[in-house]
C-alpha cells in the first residue's frame, strides 16, 4: 500500500469544504479557506495545504473563532480599504476586500488593505498572486506569535513575521516570494524535535538566551531571525506595519491573547498593492521587457527565481488533475468528516 | 597633531556648499546635497558624510550630471508623485517632491514618490526620517550597479539595493533602519582590499563564480546578498520596485550606462509613505504606545534598536556643535575649494 493517497482536484476541494462545514464554518468561510489550501496543495506546498485543515478544526473547537462571521469592509480612505474579519478567519475578509483594493490601486497608483481582528493560518503568496493576476505588484505582511528573538536579544518578542511579494509578468507566472523573517519556520523546528535531530547553528537560543542546536530547548527558548541584524530589523518592520500601523496586535499581544490555546494566531494583516501601469506612466510593456531581461540574467547563470519549483508542481498537478497527500494525513482528515 | 580636524556645524555646512558650488552645482543643488551630507556627518555616518563630496565632484567632472538641473514634479496619480531629476542629483528632486508626497499620504493613507533620471549617492535614512518627522511611516529603495550575484548565481546582476524604513515615535527619534541587501557594502570590500585583509566567508565570489575571501578577487567577481536566498529575493524586489515599476533602470542597465565612469550611479528611486493616523482609524496615540511596548521589550533584553548609535552621536555632536573628520579627508576637500 502506498504511503500516499491520490485525490483528484475536485475531491480535494470537496473534502476540504466538507470538513470545514462539518466543523462549524459556514459555506462562505469554507470556500475561502479551501481556495487557499487548494492553491497550496496544488503547488505541493504541503505545510500550508490540506494539513492546515487540522489547525482550522482545532481553532474552531477552541470556541473563540466565529465560523460564520461576515467581514465588514470599509472604505477607510481614498487609498485604504479596511476589512474587519470580526473574529473570523482572515481569508473571507481578504476575498471580500480584494475588488476594492484592486480598484483603489488602479485608480490611485498605490493602495493598502488592512485586515483586522482575524485568525490567521495561511501562506501569503496566494494573496499577493491574486493581486498580480490583476496586473498589480503586491506586498503582504503578518505578525504571528512572539517566538523569535531580535538580534542581540535573549527571548521571543517578534513573530515569524512573513513577508510576501509578487510582481506580475505578462504571459508568465508572476515573480513571487513568501518567506518567514525567522531563520526557520516554527513548523520546521517542530519537525526537528519530533525526529530528534540537531538544529543547525544560528537558528535558535534556549530559555537562558544561549545558542542551542537542541530543538526541544529551542521550542522552549526562542528562534532567531534570518540574516542577523538586517533580518531582525525587517521583522520589526513587519511587526509595526501589520500591527500598530493598522490598530492591531503585535506578536507578543497575539500570543498573550491566545492563552496557550491550539488555535490559529489572532491579529491583523497588511497588503499593499501598486499599479505598474500608473507608476510607469503607462509604459508597462517596455518595463515588463526590462524586468524580463533581469529575470533572464538571473536564470542564465543557473540561479533559480523563487517559486519556480512551485509552478512546476502546479503544472504537473493540474495536468494530471490530482494531488498526493500522505495516507496518515488523509486518514486523520477522514475522522474530521461528520457527514 | 591630531589625525582629526574639528569643524563646527556651520563650518561643515559652509565647506560643503562652497565645494559643491565651486565645482558646478548651483545653490539649490549644493544646499540639498549638503543637507543630507550634514545629517550623515552629524550622526557620525562617515561613509555617507563629507567623504561623499569627493564623489559629487568626480561625478560632475565626468561631464554628464547637470549641476543646475531643475527637477520637474508631476502629480502622476491621486497617490503618486513623480519627480524627474532631469539628469541632476536625486536630492533636490526628493526635496522638491516631499511636500506633495506628505500631502498625498495624509490625504489618501498611502502614497508613492517615484524619482526618475537621477544620479544617486546618498544614504536613504535621511529621506525616510524626513517622512517620519511628518508623522508618516516610510520605505525607500534604490538599485545601484550590478555588483551582486543572486543566490545560486555566479556573477553580478543585482545592485547593493538598499532598503530603508522609518517609523515615527511620538516625542522620540524614529525607529529607522537603512541597509544594503548585499552582505557587505561596496565600500567595505574596497576597505578590505586596501588593507590587504581577507574577507569573511560568504561575502563574495570571484569572476568564475567560486567563493572567495580575497577582496581583489571579489572586486573583479561579485558580492553576495545577506541572508542567502531570502536576501536575494528581497534584492530582486528592490530592483523591480525602484526600476521597472517606475520606468527606470535596473542596476545592470545603470552599470552599462555608466561606462566605467567614476560618477554616482544613474537610475531611479521609490519612496512609499503611509499615514499611521489614517491607517489606525485615528488611534495614533494608543498604537504609538503599542509600538513603544514592542521597542521596550527589545531594549529590555539587551538588544539594540537600529540607529540608536547614530542618535547618540547626533546628540553628542549637536551639543558640542561640531563634528570630527579625518585630517586627510579635510585636506583633500580643501583642494576642491576654488574660492
Short précis:
The structure is a homodimer of 339-residue chains. Chain A is of the alpha+beta class and 339 residues long.
Give structural notes.
2 copies of one chain form a homodimer. With 339 residues, chain A is of the alpha+beta class. The first copy, chain A, folds into 2 domains: 1-61 and 307-339, Orthogonal Bundle (Hypothetical Oxidoreductase Yiak, Chain: A, domain 1), CATH 1.10.1530.10; 71-182 and 225-306, Malate/L-lactate/L-sulpholactate dehydrogenase, NADPH binding domain (Ribosomal Protein S8, Chain: A, domain 1, 2-Layer Sandwich). Helix content of chain A is 44%, strand content 20%. The first copy, chain A, has a 7-stranded mixed beta sheet, with helices on both faces. Chain A has a 4-stranded mixed beta sheet with strand order 6-11-9-10. Chain A has a two-stranded antiparallel ribbon with strand order 1-13. In chain A, a hairpin with a 2-residue loop joins strand 2 (72-77) and strand 3 (80-84). In chain A, helix 1 (9-22) packs antiparallel against helix 2 (27-42). At the A-B interface, strand 4, strand 7, strand 8, helix 8 and helix 10 of A face strand 4, strand 7, strand 8, helix 8 and helix 10 of B.
Amino acid at each position: 500500500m502506498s504511503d500516499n493517497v491520490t485525490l483528484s482536484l475536485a475531491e480535494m476541494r470537496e473534502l476540504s469544504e466538507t470538513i470545514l462545514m462539518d466543523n462549524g464554518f459556514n459555506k462562505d468561510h469554507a470556500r475561502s479557506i479551501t481556495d487557499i489550501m487548494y492553491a497550496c496543495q496544488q503547488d505541493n506546498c504541503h505545510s500550508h495545504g490540506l494539513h492546515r485543515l487540522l489547525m482550522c478544526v482545532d481553532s474552531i473547537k477552541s470556541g473563540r473563532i466565529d465560523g460564520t462571521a461576515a467581514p465588514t469592509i470599509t472604505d477607510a480612505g481614498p487609498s485604504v480599504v479596511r476589512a474587519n474579519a470580526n473574529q473570523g478567519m482572515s481569508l473571507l475578509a481578504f476575498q471580500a476586500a480584494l475588488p476594492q483594493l484592486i480598484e483603489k490601486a488602479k485608480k490611485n497608483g498605490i493602495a493598502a488593505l488592512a485586515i483586522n481582528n482575524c485568525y490567521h493560518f495561511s501562506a501569503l503568496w496566494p494573496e499577493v498572486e491574486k493581486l498580480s493576476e490583476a496586473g498589480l505588484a503586491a506586498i503582504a505582511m503578518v505578525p504571528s506569535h512572539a517566538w523569535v528573538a531580535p538580534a542581540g536579544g535573549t527571548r521571543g518578542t517578534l513573530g515569524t513575521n512573513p513577508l510576501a511579494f509578487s510582481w506580475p509578468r505578462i504571459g508568465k507566472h508572476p515573480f513571487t516570494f513568501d518567506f518567514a523573517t525567522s531563520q526557520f519556520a516554527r513548523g520546521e523546528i517542530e519537525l526537528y524535535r519530533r525526529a530528534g535531530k540537531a538544529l543547525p547553528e544560528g537558528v535558535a537560543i534556549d530559555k537562558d538566551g544561549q545558542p542551542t542546536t537542541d530543538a526541544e530547548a529551542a521550542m522552549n527558548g526562542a528562534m532567531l531571525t534570518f540574516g542577523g541584524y538586517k533580518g531582525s530589523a525587517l521583522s520589526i518592520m513587519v511587526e509595526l506595519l501589520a500591527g500598530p500601523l493598522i490598530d492591531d496586535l503585535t506578536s507578543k499581544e497575539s500570543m498573550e491573547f491566545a492563552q496557550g490555546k491550539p488555535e490559529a494566531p489572532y491579529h491583523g494583516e497588511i497588503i499593499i498593492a501598486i499599479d505598474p501601469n500608473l507608476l510607469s506612466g503607462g509604459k508597462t510593456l517596455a518595463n515588463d521587457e526590462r524586468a524580463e531581461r533581469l529575470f533572464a540574467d538571473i536564470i542564465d547563470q543557473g540561479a533559480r527565481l523563487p517559486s519556480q519549483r512551485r509552478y512546476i508542481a502546479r503544472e504537473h498537478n493540474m495536468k494530471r488533475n490530482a494531488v498526493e497527500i500522505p495516507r496518515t494525513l488523509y486518514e486523520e482528515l477522514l475522522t474530521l468528516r461528520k457527514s
